[in-house]
Design goal:
171 residues, two-stranded antiparallel ribbon, 6 helices, 10 strands, 33% helix
């Protein structure tokens, strides 16, 4: 979160420079994923396990590989999953049933886990074994990269003075 905040701050510095265009970082937009917080006690009471919840949630979202179709030299995985209309929203996934591997019981996923949407970094880049975000921009037509940096330099130096411990800006 701190690295993202610092990246946004640095991007703001470059966006304030009229000669800078297409300001961005290399982490991009965080993808939204389905987050499950399984309550092991409730799952056990329902006769299931965390593995049963994982299998049922995979069936309701990405699917479960069940085989391979071979045509000439091409191997195509066969994926079993719910129809799109049964898995298009979080509430649809929460209402999918978790089937116990121990007995014949089943319970809606929402009764043994909290189902929600969450964002998390899709890609995390590293530099010298530390997490790193590269902020970049292009100079507008007729401008040089050095003049863009020169215009941003005073604000970057001010930002560097106020960085939290353990963080740095390299350029």
């Amino acid at each position: 979160a701190t690295l993202h905040r610092l990246s946004e701050q640095l991007q703001g510095i470059f966006r304030a420079v009229p000669m800078a265009a297409r300001v961005r970082d290399d982490w991009g937009v965080d993808p939204v994923t389905l987050a499950l917080q399984v309550d092991p006690a409730r799952a056990a009471l329902a006769g299931g396990t965390k593995e049963d919840v994982a299998r049922s949630s995979a069936l309701a979202t990405t699917g479960i590989p069940v085989g391979t179709y071979l045509e000439n030299d091409l191997m195509v995985p066969i994926i079993l999953r719910q129809q799109l209309r049964n898995r298009s929203s979080v509430s649809d996934v929460a209402s999918q049933y978790v089937y116990s591997s121990r007995d014949e019981r089943s319970v809606p996923l929402g009764e043994v886990a909290i189902v929600s949407l969450a964002s998390q970094p899709g890609e995390i880049w590293h530099f010298n074994r530390s997490r790193a975000i590269t902020v970049s921009c292009y100079p507008t037509e007729g401008a040089l990269a050095s003049t863009v940096l020169e215009a941003a330099q005073p604000r970057i130096e001010e930002m560097v003075k106020n960085l939290p411990p353990g963080y740095s800006v390299i350029y």
